[in-house]
Design brief:
Blueprint lengths: L7 H17 L45 E9 L10 E5 L25 E5 L5 E7 L10 E8 L2 E10 L16 H6 L1 E2 L2 E3 L2 E5 L2 E2 L1
Parallel strand pairs: 1-9, 1-10, 6-7
Antiparallel strand pairs: 1-4, 2-3, 2-5, 5-6, 8-9
Length: 207
């Protein structure tokens, strides 16, 4: 039995049908942001400064700014279809330029940078955007440089993860970083460029 001859009409019909199916079932926006351990040094409310805004480099009432390389960390919080998640709380916390956390459990015999906020939060805008002014993360004993991140919808925690410096030499020796696939590592890697206010990086969070 011979196959029916393909005409322009049949080819066009098949093409339109495929396009319609693609429209009906859109591809996911991106790799879901991988979760990661909270770690031992998530600062509880009593440990935090009264100033917990999105500028970790300057604490209200202090004269000097925190030490370290100042960066802007920004991006969007999205759902798996690529739609913005507005009004979500995103938190970050990290060690100071000396490698010490704003946490009573960090027993290292070094002083914490009193000008560094250590913890902050932002609320995503209508387009899902967030922004922080902080410092480029540094190494901590046994860990590659990283920034801890949490995302909340109201009181519901949606994600705990960590951001890393893309291509940092210590990444390959970090046990937590090495648990991720290549795609997952890319999703939480910070690539730095020079913007109007200095070094900046953009990391979208997909939950």
């Amino acid at each position: 039995m011979t196959s029916p001859r393909k005409t322009r009409r049949t080819v066009l019909t098949a093409t339109l049908g495929a396009l319609g199916a693609a429209t009906a079932h859109p591809l996911l926006a991106a790799t879901l942001t991988p979760g990661a351990t909270e770690g031992p040094f998530y600062p509880t409310p009593p440990m935090r400064h009264a100033d917990v805004d999105n500028d970790l480099v300057k604490i209200i009432g202090t004269i000097r700014e925190a030490g370290g390389e100042v960066i802007t960390l920004k991006g969007r919080v999205l759902d798996r279809e690529g739609q913005p998640r507005a009004g979500h709380r995103i938190e970050i916390w990290q060690c100071d330029m000396n490698g010490k956390y704003l946490h009573s459990g960090d027993r290292q015999n070094i002083d914490f940078d009193a000008a560094f906020q250590g913890f902050g939060h932002d609320i995503t805008g209508p387009d899902g955007t967030y922004s922080f002014r902080t410092i480029k993360p540094v190494t901590y004993p046994g860990r590659t440089p990283h920034i801890h991140v949490k995302v909340f919808n109201g009181d519901t925690e949606l994600l705990t993860t960590q951001f890393y410096i893309d291509g940092h030499a210590a990444n390959g020796r970090d046990r937590i970083f090495n648990r991720m696939s290549k795609a997952e590592a890319t999703a939480v890697s910070m690539v730095f460029t020079v913007g109007g206010t200095g070094e900046e990086t953009t990391v979208d969070v997909v939950v």
